[in-house]
């Protein structure tokens, strides 16, 4: 479908408001098609809003709204820039953090959650002096108290003092300790970042 | 019979007109009224700093004493406007320094203010009294020092939500010892410690001080020193509300609060230690405004606190309040007009608190004067929205953020079209609406049909097609500001409603489907709009014309294209010699309702 870039004078008395009803039907049909697809459980390519700016999508000439999907089970919501629309200035970030965590920490305890494990752990960062130290302790902790499949790979993430979830490993250990507020271990479906190989030794 | 109405009389009559809308209307009656009005307009409101130029403003209004101006689009608050976008106040300050020697008040929102600008203000305006910098950035505490040192008659310095590079707290010490004029000081956004003795002395020697909002660095133990020196305070913002739990500190704080019999507004409360909350109880009976968004106070403590504030009109709180707390609010605070509930943990999918749509429904049932709502939650239903709409038909501002994008009615899994439809249909005075959740084109049909007083609309992850946008642009008669992100709205609706855009202050669209070609076409047909394409992927010429732009900001202007843009923003060319048959609607007043 060609996108017509004509300029119609605003004509509100027309019942199609200046649109081609055909195209609108096409829109609707395409949307229904998408919906039917996912209803049968077929893993179709769901066009996410984020990929609209690519050229490929525009060849269709149609923008399809993303089908509603339930939130992922990976422990995090879908992330969009600037969403939810809470004020993102550093000052507000600090304030949100203080609501859940003290920015000025008296201790170095951080919560650690592992995906798939209901109960979290708490570690004192002062007990460690390197990433290796931290990760091997975490491996031991979770392997000991939870049923972990051996050979599972996990990605280690941390919540920094600005409220963002980041991959562990980019900063110096000291900088990391200063910045980290929480730690999360996600099952590693895509091969990215810092991986922990868990074994039941 | 020809008679002339004495100008002086007319000027006197016009001086009673405060509203810009009225003044704008008056100035369109005839040339002599235009002339008289422009000489006696002393307060300027410029809603978009790029809608008009300093030169045009100064030429028309020679006797200005107060300026209020806004820069960046609202979505800048959520990081959607890239760094370097613009909104620089310096050209304005330079121009006004030369032409408005009697300028007394400057209020800016979302603008870039430098130390140079602050210094120029401090040195150029002998009678300068009021500086309000709301969500501004670009300056340091050095700029504040200059204001403090040089403005002999400073009454108000309010830095709300601004990002200030905090070089040191010494700026406060620059207030001269003979400065006694301060009425309002809001330094809550600052990080570093100010010299406490200097603050104490300043507060002590300003008998008219009514508003004092401290920053987090001021410790709780020191509060009594300040409150005792300013028992006349009406609005007070604490610093960190935590200290070792000691009876002497507690009783000092409690006593200090009891001394301030005029307190109507409280804020601050960083790092709250629950044991100290009762210390402020004596102030509660008179409190009309409570801002607890920095306070991690749990629901039971909040319930107790709120039940002591029967005169509360405005509450800003975190979702720790939970449904139970909102029920208590509904029971105790029958004067409540404005409620804002912010998320304590916005990036977690699962709720960390027991706050649902029910809390808002309770408040809508129990608070007959409720007219302004901002509510973050994780679930909503059409039934709840319909109930809220029916309970509160006089709602003026309704902003709902369901944290998961496109979340449907959690009971029926349907879109929330009928719920929001009920809001716009019942609330005929609605001026501002923000929507979220799963929404189809249908909701926009309702909005276009019913929301005739709507002035500002915020849309995200909503709609199916251009019909949605078309409904809004063609139906919302009072629309001034429209901001859209991540919606499948494209060229058709925009181009078909091009003329509408000249009746609005601005339109923001990001992650939508408007093509580069359409942007160019729009700019050519509507020379009084600036059509600005923001695209960090490089010049749109490097991609096909049909390719959607990343972000688009369109606003009406009499100042032509702006020249201070960074290299990822392009103003589409206006075709100079191509007016054709395009007629825009009515005379457009750029200043006063820009």
Automatic annotation (TrEMBL), chain A:
Location(s) in or outside the cell: Nucleus
Keyword Transcription regulation: yes
GO cellular component, one term: nucleus
PROSITE patterns with a match to the protein in the record: PB1
SUPFAM superfamilies per UniProt: CAD & PB1 domains (SSF54277)
Gene3D superfamilies, A to Z: Phosphatidylinositol 3-kinase Catalytic Subunit, Chain A, domain 1 (3.10.20.90)
Biased composition (Basic and acidic residues): 71-81
Family according to the record: Belongs to the Aux/IAA family.
UniProt protein name: Auxin-responsive protein
Protein's organism: Salvia divinorum (Maria pastora)
TrEMBL record, chain B:
Domain named F-box: residues: 5-46
Gene3D superfamilies: 1.20.1280.50, Ribonuclease Inhibitor
Molecular function terms, GO-annotated: auxin binding
Matches recorded under SUPFAM superfamilies: F-box domain, RNI-like
Predominant subcellular localization, coarse grouping: nucleus
Keywords for this protein: Auxin signaling pathway, Developmental protein, Nucleus, Ubl conjugation pathway
Pathway listed: Protein modification; protein ubiquitination
Membrane-traversing stretches: none
Example GO BP: auxin-activated signaling pathway
One GO cellular component, as annotated: nucleus
Pfam families found in the cross-reference section: F-box_5, Transp_inhibit
Subcellular location: Nucleus
Family matches, as PANTHER family: F-BOX/TPR REPEAT PROTEIN POF3 (PTHR16134), PROTEIN TRANSPORT INHIBITOR RESPONSE 1 (PTHR16134:SF66)
Protein name: GPI-anchored mannoprotein
Organism: Salvia divinorum
């Amino acid at each position: 479908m060609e996108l017509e870039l004509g300029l119609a004078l605003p004509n509100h008395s027309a019942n199609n408001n200046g649109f081609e009803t055909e195209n609108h039907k096409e829109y609707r049909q395409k949307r229904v098609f998408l919906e039917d697809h996912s209803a049968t459980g077929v893993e179709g390519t769901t066009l996410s809003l984020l990929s609209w700016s690519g050229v490929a999508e525009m060849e269709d000439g149609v923008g399809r709204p993303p089908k509603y999907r339930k939130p992922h089970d990976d422990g995090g919501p879908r992330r969009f820039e600037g969403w939810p629309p809470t004020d993102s200035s550093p000052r507000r970030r600090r304030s949100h953090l203080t609501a859940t965590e003290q920015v000025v920490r008296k201790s170095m305890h951080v919560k650690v959650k592992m995906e798939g494990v209901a109960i979290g752990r708490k570690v004192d960062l002062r007990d460690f002096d390197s990433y290796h130290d931290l990760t091997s302790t975490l491996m031991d902790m979770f392997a000991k108290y939870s049923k972990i499949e051996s050979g599972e790979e996990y990605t280690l993430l941390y919540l920094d003092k600005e409220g963002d979830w980041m991959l562990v490993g980019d900063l110096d250990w000291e900088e990391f300790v200063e910045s980290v507020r929480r730690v999360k271990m996600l099952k590693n479906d895509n091969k990215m970042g810092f991986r922990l190989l868990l074994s039941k030794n | 019979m020809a008679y002339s109405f004495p100008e002086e009389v007319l000027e006197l009559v016009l001086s009673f007109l405060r509203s810009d809308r009225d003044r704008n209307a008056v100035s369109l009656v005839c040339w002599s009224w235009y002339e008289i009005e422009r000489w006696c307009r002393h307060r300027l409101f410029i809603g978009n700093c790029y809608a008009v130029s300093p030169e045009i403003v100064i030429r028309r209004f020679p006797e200005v004493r107060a300026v209020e101006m806004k820069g960046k689009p609202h979505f800048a608050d959520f990081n959607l406007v890239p760094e370097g976008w613009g909104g620089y106040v310096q050209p304005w300050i330079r121009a006004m320094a030369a032409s408005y020697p009697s300028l007394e008040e400057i209020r800016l929102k979302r603008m870039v203010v430098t130390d140079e600008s602050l210094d120029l203000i401090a040195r150029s305006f002998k009678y300068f009294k009021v500086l309000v910098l709301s969500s501004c950035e670009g300056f340091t505490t050095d700029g504040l020092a200059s204001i403090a040192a040089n403005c002999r008659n400073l009454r108000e310095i309010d830095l709300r939500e601004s990002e200030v590079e905090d070089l040191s707290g010494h700026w406060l010490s620059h207030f001269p010892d003979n400065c006694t004029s301060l009425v309002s000081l809001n330094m809550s956004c600052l990080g570093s410690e100010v010299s406490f003795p200097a603050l104490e002395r300043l507060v002590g020697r300003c008998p008219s001080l009514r508003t004092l909002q401290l920053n987090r660095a001021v410790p709780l133990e020191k509060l009594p020193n300040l409150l005792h020196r300013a028992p006349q305070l009406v609005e007070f913002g604490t610093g960190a509300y935590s200290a070792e739990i000691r009876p002497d500190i507690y009783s000092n704080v409690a006593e200090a609060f009891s001394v301030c019999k005029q307190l109507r507004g409280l804020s601050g409360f960083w790092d709250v230690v629950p044991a100290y909350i009762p210390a402020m109880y004596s102030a509660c009976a008179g409190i009309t405004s409570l801002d607890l968004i920095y306070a991690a106070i749990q629901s039971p403590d909040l319930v107790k606190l709120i039940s002591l504030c029967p005169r509360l009109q405005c509450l800003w709180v975190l979702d720790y309040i939970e449904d139970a707390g909102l029920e208590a609010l509904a029971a105790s605070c029958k004067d409540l007009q404005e409620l804002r509930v912010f998320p304590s943990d916005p990036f977690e999918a699962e709720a960390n608190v027991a706050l649902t749509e029910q809390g808002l429904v309770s408040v809508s049932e129990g608070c007959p004067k409720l007219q302004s709502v901002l509510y973050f939650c994780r679930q909503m239903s059409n039934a709840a929205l319909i109930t809220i709409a029916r309970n509160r038909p006089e709602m003026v501002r309704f902003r709902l953020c369901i944290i998961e994008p496109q979340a449907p009615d959690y009971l029926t899994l349907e879109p929330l079209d009928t719920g929001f439809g009920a809001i716009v249909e019942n609330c005929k005075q609605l001026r501002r609406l923000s929507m979220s959740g799963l929404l189809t084109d249908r909701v926009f049909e309702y909005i276009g049909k019913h929301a005739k007083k709507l002035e500002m609309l915020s849309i995200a992850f909503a709609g199916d097609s251009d019909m949605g946008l078309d409904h809004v642009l063609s139906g919302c008669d009072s629309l001034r500001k429209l901001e859209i992100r991540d919606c499948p709205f494209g060229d058709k609706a925009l181009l078909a409603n091009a003329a509408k855009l000249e009746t609005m202050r601005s339109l923001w669209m990001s992650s939508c489907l408007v093509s580069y070609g359409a942007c160019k076409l729009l700019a050519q047909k509507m020379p009084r709009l600036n059509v600005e394409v923001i695209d960090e992927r490089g010049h749109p010429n490097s991609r096909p014309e049909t390719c959607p732009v990343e972000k688009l900001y369109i606003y009406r202007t009499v100042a032509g294209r702006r020249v201070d843009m960074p290299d990822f923003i392009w103003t589409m060319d206006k075709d100079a010699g191509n007016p054709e048959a395009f007629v825009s609607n009515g005379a457009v007043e750029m200043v006063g309702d820009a």
